[in-house]
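Quick one:
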Amino acid sequence: MMHATVAAQEAAGLESLRAFVAENFQEFRPFAYYDKHLDCIRVQIRDCSVAEKPLSRIFTILKPMHAETLEYVGFTVKGVCHLFNRLGIEPSGVIRLAEILDEIVKKFPDRAVRLVKEEIMRNRVMQELSVDFAEAA
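Output:
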C-alpha cells in the first residue's frame, strides 16, 4: 500500500513538473527587441550560447560559442537613440529590422554595415523580424 502511495506522489510530482515546463519554457523563436536600459537593439536567430564580437561603433555581431563555423546567429545595434536621431527615425511603434538597416546603410555605407545587411538579406528569418518599441525591455 505504501509503495502505491509513493508511486502516486511521484506521478503527481512529474505531472506538476510537466505543467510547469509547458507553461514557462517555450520553444525558441528568433527575436529582435529594443533594450531601453542599454539603448540597443538585440537580434538573435538561433538558441545557443554566443560570443560577442565588436564589429564597429554601431554593430556587435553574435557568433555561436561552441561552433567551428563563421556563421553569425545575431547582432546588436548600439546607441539607438543617437543613431535614430541622426537617421531621422522615430523610435516608436513597430519597425521592420530590414527598414532600420536600410537607413543605416544609406547613412553609414562602410564595410561593417554592409556585412550585417548582407547577412540579413541572406537569412529569411532575419528579414521578417521587427522591433516593437512600445514593448521595450
